[in-house]
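#structure-requests
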Amino acid sequence: MTDRSESGDAAVLVVDDDAAVRQLTTRALRRAGFEVLEAADGRTALGMIDAGNIGVVVLDVGMPGMSGTEVVEALRRQPETATLPILLMTGSGGDQSVIEGLAAGADDFLAKPVRLDELVARVQAHLRNKAAWSERIADELQARRNVVAALAALRPSTDPEETAENVIIELVKRIESDFLAVLQLDQDGRLNELATYNHADGIRRGGVTLPSELAITLIARAMTGPWLDEFGLADDVRTASFASADLAIAAGAPIYAGDHLVGLLSI
C-alpha cells in the first residue's frame, strides 16, 4: 500500500478512451492506495485538472479528438500545470507520437500492454519527486521570508558602512553565497563598496570605488530591476573582493530610498 503522506491529497488522473484499459489501470492504482480519477478524452481531462487537485496524469497518446500530445502541450502552456508530472501510455515505445509527446513536455512513458506493477512504481516515483520539489520551493520561500524579516528588523546606523555590514551579516546567516556586497551610489555617480563578504576574506567593512565605466554599466542595469550576470575568464572581475570569490555567475539588485536609487546589492 502507498503511504498516503507520500501522495498527499493529490489524485492520479487516468486518461484513456479505451474503457477496459482505463478500468484496469484505475483498479491497479487504487489497490496501491491512490485516489484515482478517470477521463475518457483529452478535453474532459483538462477540465478535471483545472477543477481538482491532480498530482500525476497517466495519459494515453493515441486518443481521437484531442490527442495525448495536444493535452501535454495545453498543460505545459499554463503556469499552474507547467511542471505537473505526465506519464504517457502508448502502443509502442518507438512510436513517433511518444517522441512528440516527450518533446511537448511529458515526463515519462510506458508501452502497452502496461505492466501494472511498473505503472504503480513510476507513479509513486513521480509523486515523490513532485513532493520533494514542492518541499524545496517551500523551504526557499521560507528562507526568503526570513531574510526579509531580518532585514526589516535592522536599525539603520548613522554610519552607512556599519549598516551595510549588518546587512551582510544577516544575509550570510541565512543564504549560501560565495560573495556579497553592498555598494553605495554617491552624489557624484560613483559606486563605493560599503561592506563585502567572500569565503577567503570573510565579512569586511569598507572597500574600493568601482571603475567609472563599470559603475555606469551597473547603475544602468539597476534601473531596470534585479539582474543576473555570467562571467568568463576575459570578463572584468570588478574588484579584488569579487575576484577572490572566483564566481561564474552573480546577481544584482537595486537599493532604493523612496524613489531614489542609493545603492546596489550584489550576490
